[in-house]
Amino acid sequence: MHSPSILAPSDTAELDPRRLLSSIGEVVYTWDIASDALIWGPNAAEVLGPVPEAAMQRGLAFAGLVEPGSGRSRYDAIFSSNGHDQGDGVVFRTRYAADLAGRKMWIEDAGRWFAGLDGRPACARGVLRLERSVKADELNRTTGELCDRSALVERVEATLAEHLPAERVVVVLIAAIDELTRLNDDFGHEATDAIIGVVQDRLRSVMRRRDHLVRYSGNRFAILLTGCPQNQVESAARRFTKAVAQAAIETAHGIALARLRIGAAIAPDLSSHAGTLVAAAENALSHAKAGAIDAAVIARRGDIREHAVEKAGLDQQAVAALNERRVQLALQPVVTAIGREVAFQEALLRVGRGPDGLFFAPAELVPMLERRGLVRLFDHRVLELAVDLMTSDQSLTLSLNVSPQSLTDPEWLEAFVAFTNASRGLGSRLIVEITETATIDDPQRIARLLGAIKAQGARIAIDDFGAGHTSLRHLREFPIDILKLDGAFTQNLRRSTDDRFYVRTLIDLARHLEVETVAEWVDEEVQARMLADWGVTYLQGHLLGKAELWPLAPQAPRRQTAC
């Protein structure tokens, strides 16, 4: 039985999702980790206030607003994750205090990161929520040397300047406590802070006098070893990991076991540049965590060159894959919230890299194709593949993601009309998904284009709905059949009362507009039951089924969806 509506009929005339989102102190963002570009939802200024422009535009600059010792930054939360992106990204969640133009606030930051070509985080989507103001004494409870990442780079620069002229090797170790998210969930933030403090003390207890220990961004420790021969780096790292794991840590909420993962970069063998060394050690740490490697992972010079070469010519490689018919579809089921029966499948783009069976990561590929104006070629191919598949299997109903560039391309629309006219009833088994942001540039034109698609019998879905881009007036103007609720909000329902309120309001809004709803990123049974009780129409996520290549090809590893 559905829960009663939390909106009166008169309320819908005034409801603005953007204003509602601001009222609970939440804003969504997308972070392109490779370029460090940070893109916020349209209500960012209302929520965050007059934050410096650099911090709003760059992910690492925003991380610089995090108060030392208050918690992991978004960067740390993502790169300390043990997960592997196998289709829908990897969940991250953290809590920290940040200085927002003189206003210090506790912030909850949660979302999913998506892997790039090398399997490491390439971009992230999430939601940031302001909790409350920081109390006067809350940030003075930790001890030890604390700094942010930029201060760490400065410290490394000073160490290099002192020791490299004397031909002394400098080793940068970046260490992080493994599975900190689980410790947070099991013991709470205060107990986790205590665990971090004990780990710091244990590290210091086995350091040499001339070495330096720096804690930065909450969960990470940088250990600078001077005059350590290269063949002794791994044994030095083992000394630190053994010290941390030597005994359980007693907290007010129970007994915890802590394990350390370590990445290392050596100067001058790898580089004599502080920023390069820190970044290389962080990348090595991400490999150590992803592979659950107990020994230190040491960054090699070839790793940096190979990654740069691999990214070069990405667009040419992708177009070659298109010409060589290495474009495939992966289908992910969308099921009814009541009954869990498959209602339709979302068709996701997969582009093969060659005979090795690997695929380009859409997290990097799709944005690049959009920037180069090539995404229309791939949207055309996806349409062709979908029509072929639906023609061969009359029981299939598919939803297709269409980029704003393709939507406004007359050739794509002509192809869509031709395909749907050629096969009777095919249009009624197609759902065209557009992003919420695609509706804001020229609403009248978009409404006409969507009307032409609807005239072919297809349904229209707005993807990632909830970020606050679309006003209620525009929703009424568009011929929308389905709203897909942004997974950044639905994934945190068990923990966040604000997200529960917001998602319920969006579901009620959809009901008043007489459109169906899909909840994305559904990974837990409790989450699914909540959504079903509130009246959501469909569910999509790992709990209900992962994206599978079609036709099935178990030997080809699945890669990630676009961010």
Descriptive report:
47% of the residues are buried. The model is unreliable at 305-310 and 553-563 (pLDDT under 50). The chain has three domains: 17-135, Beta-Lactamase, CATH 3.30.450.310; 146-309, Alpha-Beta Plaits; 313-550, EAL domain (TIM Barrel), CATH 3.20.20.450. The two termini are 34 Å apart. It is globular, with a radius of gyration of 25 Å. The longest helix is centred in the last third of the chain and has 18 residues, at 375-392. The chain has 563 residues and is α/β, with parallel strands linked by helices. It is built from 21 helices and 22 strands.
Question: What is the gist of this entry?
Answer:
The protein is of the alpha/beta class and 563 residues long.
Name a few traits of the molecule.
single chain, 563 residues, alpha/beta, Beta-Lactamase, Alpha-Beta Plaits, TIM Barrel, 3 domains, 8-stranded mixed barrel, 6-stranded mixed sheet, 21 helices, 24% strand, disordered C terminus
